[in-house]
Amino acid sequence: MAKYEITFITEGEGNSKNVEGLFETSGVKIAANRELGVRTLTYPIGKQTLGRYFIFQFETEPAKVRELEKLLKLKGNLLRFLLTKPVHQAEPRPVRAPRPPKATPSPAPVKAKIPEVAPKAPAKPDSAPQTKTAPRAKQAAPKLKPAAVPAPSKAAPAARAKKSAKSEVSKSTLEEKLKELTGE
Q1: CA distance readout (Å), 7 to 95, 133, 153
Q2: DSSP character for 10?
Q3: pTM of the model
Q4: Which of 23, 46, 63, 82 is most buried, judging by how many CB atoms fall within 10 Å of its CB?
């Protein structure tokens, strides 16, 4: 036999005698019954605004529960009912005392060393062709003192001509080396 609980609401001044009689004829053993009194309903049910609340605890065979629900639905003076099987809780677990914290030696403070970064010199152009690589994170450029700018002189155009001649030579040299490497 399993234990069940039913909560039901009868019309305003109704009583639980009809429901008790229904339980007895069905062969259900009522363990406890309790009346909660007349209360105002949250919303009207069948034009009723007042209802009398009851709670019955009983034992029966699980097969008889559906039959009992059908009979309760046919009863005219019940506004609502809720039939449940209460959850029986196992014995509560014993409460454990908290464990004391483990005694661990406190670590000595560690001083963090900041790495020193030396500024890099600008790279010289190689004579071999360069392939494209992924961009690197930019590093802070070293602060340089501004160089003294010489006053323009008449020799400046000649110096520019020498630079352009050097760049042409380096281009032709690069082209020759490229041909040698590719085998053309």
Answers
A1: 34, 78, 111
A2: E
A3: 0.46
A4: 23
Question: Are 60 and 69 a contacting pair, CB within 8 Å?
Answer: no
| Two structure tokens written together for 9 | 């609401």
Q: Which of 65, 63, 39, 61 is nearest to 52 (CA)?
A: 39
Check: CB of residue 9 under 8 Å from CB of residue 38.
no
* pLDDT above 60 for 181: yes
Residue 34, CA distances (Å) to 24, 31, 64 in order: 17, 11, 22
Distance CA 83, CA 70 (A): 12
CA 149 → CA 20, 41, 157, 159, 170, distances in Å? 114, 98, 16, 15, 27
52-71, pLDDT tens digit by residue? 898 989 888 888 888 888 88
Give me the residue label for tokens 């259900």: 28
Torsion angles phi and psi, residue 91, rounded to 5: -60, 140
